[in-house]
Amino acid sequence: MSIIFRCNNCETINDIPNNHQYRLCKDCGKLITYTPGEAIIVDDIEIGHNVFLQSGKLSTSEAEKFFQITDTHKQKISDIITAFEKKSAILFDIQSTNLPDTVLSILKQSKTQSLDELIRNCRLFDISLPKLEAIILQLKKEGYAYQPKSWLILLA
User: Fold this and answer.
1) Interval 94-139: pLDDT, tens
2) Which fold has domain 99-155?
3) φ, ψ for residue 2, nearest 5 deg
4) pTM for the whole structure
5) DSSP string of 39-91?
6) Which residues contact 34 (CB under 8 A, 6 or more apart)?
């Protein structure tokens, strides 16, 4: 099962497995999350969702269809978001002086390498999403991290 949603920044259509909340947009690279009013849940064998994924950005008629489907999935997506928010973060023993080193230490001690887990753990250190987005971009440019999927971040 996957969740299909539009990027709040550039309106590109993105998909994500249903057990993740955050990802980097495949078009603009911004850190985005889905919300109940902007996403739909689809089974992987469902053919209809390919129309949305391959369209990139929605035409007016596709957008109308997308939001009609969205209304039927609000409760399911709300349940997924609630389940994500209930997950507990792991307390790390981190002794770094700057934010990039803190994020790098969190990545080294992380169990799943998911962007969701990284964000949840960075909140414990008061690292905001915009700061984290910039740090991830910096780590990728410097070759310390890479993203095989847009909802995963791995050390290089």
Assistant:
1) 666 788 888 888 888 887 788 888 888 888 888 888 899 899 989 9
2) Arc Repressor Mutant, subunit A (1.10.10)
3) -130, 165
4) 0.61
5) EEEE-TT-STHHHHHHHSS--HHHHHHHHHHHHHHHHHHHHHHHHHHHSPPPP
6) 3, 5, 16, 21, 77, 81
pLDDT tens for 8-18 read 778 777 777 76
Domain ranges of the chain: 2-86, 99-155
Angle between helices 129-141 and 115-123 (to 10 degrees): 130
Asked whether 15 and 53 are in contact (CB, 8 A), the reply is yes
- Rounded distance, CA 30 to CA 150, Å? 11
- Both tokens of 96, joined, read 């770094």
In contact, 43 and 72? CB cutoff 8 Å: no
Return d(Cα 7, Cα 17) in angstroms, integer. 15
Q: Which residue, 33, 24, 11, is CA-closest to 135?
A: 24
C-alpha 17/C-alpha 151 separation (Å) is 9
